[in-house]
Amino acid sequence: MFQRVNRLAIELPEVEYGDVNAASAVQELLGGKFGEMSTLNNYMYQSFNFRGKVKLKPFYDLVASITAEEFGHVELVATTINLLNKGASFPAAPDLTPLQNGKNMRNAKAFIATAQTSSPHDSMGLPWTGENVFTSGNLVLDLLHNFFLECGARTHKMRVYEMTDHPVAREMIGYLLVRGGTHIVAYAKALEMATGVDVTKMLPIPNLDNRVFDAARKYEDRGYGNVLFTWNYVGDYTDINKIWKGPHPQTGEKLIVKEGIPETSGKVPNLDELPEEFAPGIGPDEFHAIAKRLLAKM
């Protein structure tokens, strides 16, 4: 089972303006083939379907713990999209066309279907699909797929970073470049443990250091690229330390396993109401009636 914490993985900047077309590009990092929906569901189903959990526990622990982190990455990218959609419409009577900007945006569907928020679609509006999930049951093949998936995800993050200079998008991408890079190394080391082949000699893919990106450099400086978390406080996934050990293959820094979740996090933003989208569609009278019902003695 999973336990949810009402915090984001990092603190996102508070800005007064959005960038709706940037939100469309960032959708690729959520619902694209190499987006966070794919990393989450690949690792989640591989952990559900893992055969030999006891005999091969370090490998199971690795996939299972990264699964838990990916839930937070989905939330972080979705929240970024929501913030990038800020300020694209205005409250007004329907005849004043308050959603008029939507018809000129790359993702008009966000104005029509989701009240200017995220959805499990790619940058062109195509829906994410379970066809993106690979769970073969073969340990080495699944690990190799995960390594490839993370490298593809890293490539897409780099490209979207170069498409927008919006501070919210760049903060999110900078963080995920570092954490995704950590997962790449983790799967490379797991493959080495399983096969004896040192896959880390191929890194980084693409051949560009995270420190080239201003928004990623500070997370590297804080050591986020050297640590894996168990996302659990009762010792269930601590055997990842049998894989995640020794020096980092690129930096030489010591690899660390920490039980639980990161100590630092960010607040979940309270999205503005959009009366022109009828979202949430609760006016003062309805809110008063709801409050009375909520406070009434049962």
TrEMBL record:
It holds the Pfam family Mn_catalase. Its cofactor is Ca(2+); Mn(2+). The keyword Calcium applies. Belongs to the manganese catalase family. Binds 1 Ca(2+) ion per subunit. The lineage of its organism: Bacteria, Bacillati, Bacillota, Bacilli, Bacillales. GO terms for molecular function: metal ion binding. The keyword Manganese applies. Ca(2+) binds at residues 61, 235. InterPro entries: Ferritin-like (IPR012347), Ferritin-like_SF (IPR009078), Mn_catalase (IPR007760), Mn_catalase_dom (IPR039377). Mn(2+) binds at residues 36, 70, 73, 150, 183. Gene3D superfamilies: 1.20.1260.10. This is Mn-containing catalase. Keywords: Calcium, Manganese, Metal-binding. SUPFAM superfamilies: Ferritin-like.
